[in-house]
Amino acid sequence: MKEFLTTERIDPSKRLVVERTKDFAEIYDIFNVADASSQSDRCIQCGDPFCLNKCPLHNYIPQWLKSVAEKDLEFAFKLSNEPSPFPEVMGRICPHDRLCEGDCTLNDGHGAITIGSIETHITEAGFKAGMKPDFPGITTDKKVAVIGSGPAGLSAATYLLRSGISVTMYESADRAGGLLTYGIPNFKLDKKIVDRRISLLEEAGLKLILNTKVGQDINFEDVANTHDAMFIGVGATKGKYAGLVGEKASNVYAAMDYLTAIQRKNFKTVYDKKFDFKDLNVVVIGGGDTAMDCLRTAKREGAKSVTCLYRRDEKNMPGSRKEYKNAMEEGVDFTFLVAPKEIIVDESGKAISVEVIKTNLGSKGTDGRQKMEEVKGSEFRVNADIVIMSLGFDPVVPSFLAENGIETNSWGGIIINEETHETSTAGIYAGGDCFRGADLVVTAALDGREAARSISNTLLK
């Protein structure tokens, strides 16, 4: 270990831009054994590891780095899969620069350990060698219903099954995975990766019921009455709008609607053809990872031009630096320090441009971020055939919540006891974006894990 003075940080190689923008295949190669081992060998094994502390799941990062450096794949696989329900997913999509790698001691002058890429290597190499996460089988008579098969639901199911508890999962869509399946493009996360994890859960005893919306296709009460507990992980998929004049035009779309449609297209299933943007000028408003996903998707779909409008500067973008860099490489145009004021529509009601005003960043506010100030008289227009709003998400509040005494807050988030994840109705738990609002996959996985532990402790005591 501690080879950081003689070994530089390297990132996994990427497919060439001219190749990768022609399809939706993943763009990063997976580390081979030699690269994973040498990069892990750079770790200085901090006494108080900042990487572990910054990870919401508190993954055993220094420990599995040591195991990889020593080429002990089996132990690394066990360590990686213990606190995380799907480390090969986290290794691909987590914003490591804001979490573990961002707090790596070597980040100051030497380059952080490539933690995410090594995390992906561990599980992929383990699977290739025939390893699987441990599940005991259904060893109890307890049954739990999980509503929603996104990151929080899959995580909850994982840890409930590890406790020997039977799990039935209800998903309204035709495929499981939630955000992992329909909200994250294939070039970041191949759907075979998601399907493989779900298959492992089904092997462990998960009963998966698709195309079934609880509260509509099946009564909530019927589900509750036939299970000993319930976990709600329905996410937050309702796109936010800015309240702009013209934003309800027929060619102004919410980000998740677009990403879902194109994923359906890639699955070769029925999708709305209005989302075919070939040879069109696409403008995306927003600067997070979902905005980057929309921008990069539109490039692959053959858009004539793809432009991102963001009200702050490059350094203040909320998304991952890696995703911004990839979008830049792939030919996306970025216009920083502009705030949208109005979406201009023609006589037929279609958007034809976005009127923006230039901004400056002033003094810092109470949240530590610089305040945005508009530059008077600096308005101009950006031509657009399509406008995509990527300004975050709110929960879609199912009617069964209020009908069953499950309290929500002012913006529709489910209120829980944050120590136990139990809602205001006994025996019903919740977590993920339907509790936090739109957040990271890793925090949804944390909620699912901790809720499952609370449920297990209650049912099995």
How would you portray this structure in words?
With 461 residues, this protein is α/β, with parallel strands linked by helices. Helices cover 33% and strands 17% of the residues. The chain contains 17 helices and 16 strands. The strands form four sheets. Strands 3-2-1-4-16 form a five-stranded parallel sheet, with helices on one face. Helix 8 (151-162) links the parallel strand 1 and strand 2. Helix 2 (33-40) packs across helix 7 and helix 8 (151-162) packs parallel to helix 17 (441-459). The protein is globular. The mean pLDDT is 96.
Short description:
The protein is α/β, with parallel strands linked by helices.
- Which structural class do the helices and strands define? alpha/beta
Proportion of strand residues:
15-25%
Mean pLDDT: 96
Inertia-based shape: globular
Low-confidence stretches: none
**Percentage of residues assigned to helices:** 25-40%
Alpha-carbon Rg, integer: 23 Å
Quaternary structure state of the chains depicted: single chain
Keywords:
461 residues; alpha/beta; 5-stranded parallel sheet; 17 helices
Q: How do the strands and helices of this protein lay out in sequence?
A:
Layout: H1 17-20, H2 33-40, H3 50-54, H4 61-69, H5 73-81, H6 87-93, H7 115-128, E1 143-147, H8 151-162, E2 166-170, H9 179-182, H10 191-203, E3 207-209, H11 220-225, E4 229-232, E5 238-239, E6 252-254, H12 255-266, E7 281-285, H13 289-300, E8 305-310, H14 321-329, E9 333-336, E10 338-345, E11 351-364, E12 370-374, E13 380-383, E14 386-389, E15 393-394, H15 399-403, E16 428-430, H16 433-436, H17 441-459
Parallel strand pairs: 1-2, 1-4, 2-3, 4-16, 6-14, 7-8, 7-14, 8-9
Antiparallel strand pairs: 5-15, 10-11, 11-12, 11-13
Helix pairs in contact: 2-4, 2-7, 4-5, 5-7, 6-7, 8-17, 12-13, 13-14
